Structure formats: structure tokens, C-alpha cells
Automatic annotation (TrEMBL):
<protein>
    <submittedName>
        <fullName>Altered inheritance of mitochondria protein 32</fullName>
    </submittedName>
</protein>
<dbReference type="InterPro" id="IPR009737">
    <property type="entry name" value="Aim32/Apd1-like"/>
</dbReference>
<dbReference type="InterPro" id="IPR036249">
    <property type="entry name" value="Thioredoxin-like_sf"/>
</dbReference>
<dbReference type="Pfam" id="PF06999">
    <property type="entry name" value="Suc_Fer-like"/>
</dbReference>
Length: 241
């Protein structure tokens, strides 16, 4: 399959909207290497333990690498971003409890004021994510660098760009997850990168709710905190161009 085919869509392509599994919290564990070189199946005892403890209330755990070093980072529909210490066998249950409170109990959590963008580039899981996700990730890097050169103190400096492992929906590559908004996008190409950043950087840096219109609806897969039926209802209530 050629790259040009990977970057194109046809009438036969599956429906994009409403394809995000319901979750109340998206939890990212750091990996030092790019997901482009991770094995097809990525897991370890700590990941499995945390996933088992968070799944009952709507937590999803994944691996990511970013431009910034960090530990556990989680996003919830209720309280935005949460940064936690390194996950260990001694603190996994305590961290799971903190994540549950963050996802289910309203509170005042310090927000980092940053826009977190994650591109699925998990090549060994599916070549479409490796190829299409890879070129979109590189295009985002180049676009952000260009914006920082033009405006060194501008909004591009608020972006944390990262790569994430398998998110589901290989056929929608390139898949891009955006937080704290909670928006999931699919079928993005390098040509869409500038419009994506314009839309995200001009919107409020907060988790979006059921009443908020989808950002970039032509690429919108769904939103954290919404069931499939709610995602479809939100899409159907808008005029998609």
C-alpha cells in the first residue's frame, strides 16, 4: 500500500464519528523511545495493574513519549490535567486512587496551561499509524518550530507534542488526541496540521462537554467522557461542513 493511498479517503471508508470508546480519564505512562519503534504489544506488570484498577470507573492507560520529561500524566473530563510521580509497584494502588478522585470528584487541581497533542505512531501495531502518523507528527514538529521562529513568545510555546502508542482505529490514521479538550481526531494529513493548530490554540484550554461543538468536525472521531450514542447525537446536532 502506497503512502498516497494511506493519506487518502474514499466513500467506502468507515464512518469516523462516534468511534471513541467511552472513558472518563486518559492516563499516560512515559516511555523514553518513540512508539514508532515499540513492539506491537506493549505492556508490563505496572501498566496491567494500573489498567485493572482504573478500568471499572472509566480509565484508559497508554504509553507516550513527549518533548518534555515526565512521569504519570492523566486527563479527566472533570478536572483537566493531573501530573503524578513515577509509577512503582509500591505506589500503584495509591496512584490509582488519586486518578479515580481526579476523574470522579470535583476539585481544584492546578492546571499547567498547556495544550497536549499526541499522535499515534505505533508502527509495529499497524503500518498506517507508523507511516501516516509519522508524517503528521513530523509536520506538527515543523509547523510548531516555524511558529516559534516567527513569534518566539507566542502560543506555540504552550504546546506539548508527543507520540502515543496504539489508540484503536488504524483505519483512521493519522489519529491525534488532544488534551485537556479530550478531542480525538482521525484521517489527518500533513496538509491539515496548520488548521488543526489554529483551531486548538484559539479555543479554551479546558475539557469540552456535551454541549460544546466538535472542533474540526470533518476530522472528529469523538470526545473523552461521551458514550458513542452521545458522540453521534452531538455530531447530528451540528451542521457538518
Amino acid at each position: 500500500m502506497t503512502l498516497s493511498r494511506l493519506l487518502s479517503t474514499t466513500k467506502a471508508d468507515p464512518i469516523l464519528h462516534g468511534t471513541v470508546a467511552y472513558h472518563r480519564s486518559y492516563i499516560l505512562l512515559p516511555v523514553p523511545e518513540s512508539p514508532q519503534i515499540l513492539p506491537a504489544r506493549v505492556s508490563n506488570p505496572l501498566h496491567r495493574s494500573l489498567q485493572l484498577q482504573t478500568m471499572p470507573w472509566g480509565g484508559l492507560v497508554n504509553f507516550a513519549s513527549t518533548m518534555e520529561t515526565g512521569n504519570v500524566t492523566a486527563f479527566s473530563t472533570l478536572n483537566g490535567v493531573l501530573h503524578l510521580p513515577t509509577l512503582t509497584s509500591e505506589n500503584v494502588s495509591d496512584i490509582a486512587e488519586q486518578l479515580q478522585r481526579h476523574a470522579t470528584v470535583p476539585g481544584k487541581y492546578p492546571q499547567d496551561g498547556k495544550l497536549h497533542i499526541y499522535v499515534c505512531t505505533h508502527a509495529a501495531r499497524d503500518c498506517r499509524c507508523g507511516d501516516t502518523g509519522g508524517v503528521v507528527f513530523r509536520a506538527l514538529c515543523e509547523e510548531l518550530d516555524a511558529r516559534k521562529r516567527v513569534d518566539p513568545g507566542g502560543t506555540a510555546n504552550r504546546v506539548v507534542l508527543g507520540e502515543v502508542a496504539h489508540v484503536g482505529g488504524h483505519q483512521f490514521a493519522a489519529n491525534v488526541l488532544v488534551f485537556p479538550h479530550g478531542e480525538w481526531f482521525g484521517r489527518l494529513t500533513p496538509n491539515d496540521v496548520s488548521a488543526l493548530l489554529d483551531s486548538l490554540l484559539s479555543s479554551d484550554q479546558r475539557p469540552l462537554n456535551l454541549q460544546d461543538k466538535p472542533l474540526l468536525p470533518q476530522f472528529w472521531r469523538g470526545r473523552m467522557g461521551l458514550h458513542k450514542e452521545q458522540q453521534m447525537s452531538l455530531v447530528n446536532s451540528q451542521t457538518l461542513k
